[in-house]
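Quick start: what a row looks like.
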Amino acid sequence: MLNKHVLVTGGSGFIGSHLCENLLDSEFEVLCVDNYFTGSKSEICFHDLPPDDPKQRQPNITLATEILGWNPTTNLKVGLLKTIEYFEKLI
């Protein structure tokens, strides 16, 4: 049987906290260590996803394709760059 214990250094940061969450979801026992050198000392809090989160609603464009004949025309990278640019203007 595999050892299901994992030590994550830097686990309080954005990437580390998501890594810890995924490991916990995969039934690993996780120990997170962080010195908070570059960020805040706030506690990591896990919350349920909102109902409109893509992970929850799992969007599927099959009906749009079948009924309307619609398909996306912007590739993912361009679409993400346009989205980032849009939200940067709002800030």
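That is the whole record. The CA atoms of residues 7 and 31 lie 5 Å apart. Helices lie at 14-25, 54-57, 62-68, 76-90.
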